Amino acid sequence: xxxHADQVRADTLLVIGVHRAELAFGRAVAERLPVSGMDVxxxxxxxxxxxxLPDEVYRYERVHQALYGQLLSFIRPSHRLVVDLxxxxxxxxxxxxxxxxxxxxxKRIALEPVPVRCWALGSGLHAGARTVVPASIWxxxxxxxxxxxxYLPPDGTGWEEAVDxxxxxxERLRALPEQT
Length: 180
Prior knowledge:
Oligomer: single chain
Structural class: alpha/beta
Distance between the termini: 33 Å
Number of helices: 5
């Protein structure tokens, strides 16, 4: 893992490359970000994005949890927002999903004119999505964790539009007021 630390006290940490195949997209987004206010953590040797077979699920979850557990050492007290950037495919892409345990953030983003669906991360009946990310990351009282999934069309077109969408959503997430 390598971190690009902004000299200013950044309020946001952008994590790219958790899955190897997503690193190039993450780098394209990071290269076009505004210079101040955001640190970038590039995971140069990320995990496979391959979905596990039933007999591989236990190992898959443990490896993800071990990698995400290491993120805590890169999250500084000034980081109020940690955005974990991922990619996927969707025939109507580019489009996006946001996954977070923050009810406040989900309510605020729903009021914004942004092309994104919001999903609740959690561990109960009200959770909209299950995750292998440890609760010490997605439900941390010191920062808000957001998994941002940007979907590209299956034919690989729309790369620039998807990068633009990711940057737009990162800027909107950072601009949302903190919970009061």
